[in-house]
């Protein structure tokens, strides 16, 4: 799982490691993953300097010094690894972005997960998404307004990137748990106070996850790996049958809008 906290951690690691560095090569395993031609790669990527790394919702944007952007999406099971010719990720990589001796590997990438775009094209692609969950302009009022047309379960709406971007299967469960609201609670039932709890929980859960290193299963480099994998610190996500850290009741796995969700039925209520 790669949601806002994990991608934000990638963003800061990539910025720290590569901002100002020149891209000396790029290799992709298939033109499905990255549709650019060899000519485009030679002209628009190789030799260019990576200026800046941005995260928007569930995407990473690598800003190149020619004004182009590399838009990277990491789907289920995909991850990044910083290594070199001999220090490789544990699974085969579909993307190698070479910065001299150092190589950024992309593992588990699927069709169109990497795209070379102009600024205008980036806006066209990402413009349909809602504000980032951590966007400072997303006040409580605006947050509530984003859900105005929604009638279904809160979990599905939290995961809907056109409502708010950055939250997926894991953190939607964690946010609902932190707000003491069931993931299958129906939006029309919500009171002002429910929204206030949900809004506060969203910030708390995401910020704590970033501070704790996220819930990613893969280390980004061998050095980090040697230091041991980060323990996932989820309260309910993927913890079916285990005791709730608050009340001791068993965490249940339920279906919400055709997706699985994890809930403590004793701590979480409909409002
Ligand atoms: Zn509980």
From TrEMBL:
GO terms for molecular function: 8-oxo-7,8-dihydroguanine DNA N-glycosylase activity; class I DNA-(apurinic or apyrimidinic site) endonuclease activity; damaged DNA binding; double-stranded DNA binding; zinc ion binding. It catalyses: Hydrolysis of DNA containing ring-opened 7-methylguanine residues, releasing 2,6-diamino-4-hydroxy-5-(N-methyl)formamidopyrimidine; 2'-deoxyribonucleotide-(2'-deoxyribose 5'-phosphate)-2'-deoxyribonucleotide-DNA = a 3'-end 2'-deoxyribonucleotide-(2,3-dehydro-2,3-deoxyribose 5'-phosphate)-DNA + a 5'-end 5'-phospho-2'-deoxyribonucleoside-DNA + H(+). Residues 2-106 form the Formamidopyrimidine-DNA glycosylase catalytic domain. GO terms for biological process: base-excision repair. It comes from the Bacteria. InterPro entries: FPG_cat, FPG_N, H2TH_FPG, Ribosomal_uS13-like_H2TH, Znf_DNA_glyclase/AP_lyase, Znf_FPG/IleRS. The keyword Zinc applies. Its EC number is 3.2.2.23, 4.2.99.18. SMART domains: Fapy_DNA_glyco, H2TH. Residues 235-269 form the FPG-type domain. Its cofactor is Zn(2+). Keywords: DNA damage, DNA repair, DNA-binding, Glycosidase, Hydrolase, Lyase, Metal-binding, Multifunctional enzyme, Zinc, Zinc-finger. Belongs to the FPG family. PANTHER family: FORMAMIDOPYRIMIDINE-DNA GLYCOSYLASE. This is Formamidopyrimidine-DNA glycosylase.
């Amino acid at each position: 799982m790669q949601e806002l906290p994990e991608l934000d951690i990638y963003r800061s690691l990539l910025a720290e490691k590569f901002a100002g560095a020149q891209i000396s090569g790029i290799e992709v395993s298939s033109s499905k993953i990255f549709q650019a031609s060899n000519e485009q790669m030679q002209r628009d990527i190789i030799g260019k300097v990576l200026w800046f790394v941005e995260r928007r919702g569930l995407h990473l944007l690598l800003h190149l010094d020619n004004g182009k952007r590399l838009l990277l999406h990491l789907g289920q099971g995909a991850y990044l690894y910083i290594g070199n010719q001999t220090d490789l990720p544990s699974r085969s990589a579909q993307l190698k972005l070479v910065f001299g001796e150092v190589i950024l590997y992309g593992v588990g990438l699927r069709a169109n997960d990497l795209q070379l775009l102009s600024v205008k094209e980036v806006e066209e692609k990402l413009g349909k998404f809602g504000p980032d969950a951590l966007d400072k302009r997303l006040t409580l009022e605006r947050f509530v307004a984003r859900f105005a047309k929604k009638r279904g379960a809160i979990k599905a709406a939290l995961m809907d990137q056109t409502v708010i971007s950055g939250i997926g299967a894991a953190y939607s469960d964690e946010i609902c748990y932190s707000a003491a609201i069931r993931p299958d609670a129906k939006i029309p039932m919500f009171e002002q106070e429910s929204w206030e709890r949900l809004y506060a929980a969203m910030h708390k859960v995401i910020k704590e996850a970033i501070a704790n290193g996220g819930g990613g299963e893969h280390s980004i480099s061998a050095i980090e790996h040697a230091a041991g994998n980060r323990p996932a610190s989820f309260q309910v996500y993927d913890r079916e049958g285990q005791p709730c850290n608050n009340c001791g009741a068993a965490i249940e796995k339920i279906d919400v809008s055709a997706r699985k969700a994890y809930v403590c039925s004793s701590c979480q209520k409909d409002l």
